[in-house]
Design brief:
By secondary structure, the chain is mainly α. The chain has a domain of 84 residues: AhpD-like (Up-down Bundle). α1 crosses α2, α3 crosses α5 and α4 crosses α5. The longest helix has 39 residues. The chain is globular and about 40 Å long. The protein starts with a helix and ends in a 37-residue tail after the last helix.
């Protein structure tokens, strides 16, 4: 899966929806901004919660956006994996499948953020199908979902 390209395609679709549902998307954007700018949790913690809900709800575009936001917030692969373990514990088999997608998104998007190149999936390092090598680094910036709702 090309998470970077898929995120870009979804942003285009959301901008199109923006034009059709101007008031609804304007209100959703305002709510999203308020959630991210207020409260007792930092932005990274809120994105971990959003990723967990994305996995539980099996929303691939949501996974892509929230993984991207976590990379920009400086989340490590170990932190993402820890959140995904809670998803699996609470959601069982279906969450296991979408947790694998979320970790793939993190691996691919964290590399793409720095090199502009999507790397292949991280190789399995043991007989256990859910044990992987640690990736490289991650980095900072704005919430990717809000970019979809910029009114032009």
């Amino acid at each position: 899966m090309d998470w970077k390209a898929d995120n870009a395609v979804m942003r285009t679709k959301l901008r199109n929806l923006n034009q059709a549902l101007l008031e609804t998307t304007k209100d959703f954007s305002a709510m999203t901004k308020t959630v991210h700018e207020t409260g007792g949790l930092d932005a990274k913690t809120k994105e971990f919660a959003a990723l967990a809900i994305s996995v539980a709800d099996r929303c691939e575009p949501c996974i892509g956006f929230h993984v991207e936001a976590l990379i920009k917030a400086g989340a490590s692969r170990d932190e993402v994996a820890d959140v995904l373990s809670v998803c699996i514990q609470m959601g069982g088999g279906p969450s296991l499948m979408y947790a694998a997608k979320a970790l793939d998104a993190f691996d691919r998007l964290s590399t793409a953020a720095y090199s502009g190149v999507i790397r292949p999936p991280v190789p399995i390092t043991s007989a256990h199908p859910f044990r992987f090598d640690p990736p490289g680094d991650s980095g900072p910036s704005a919430h990717p979902l809000l970019a979809c709702f910029v009114l032009q």
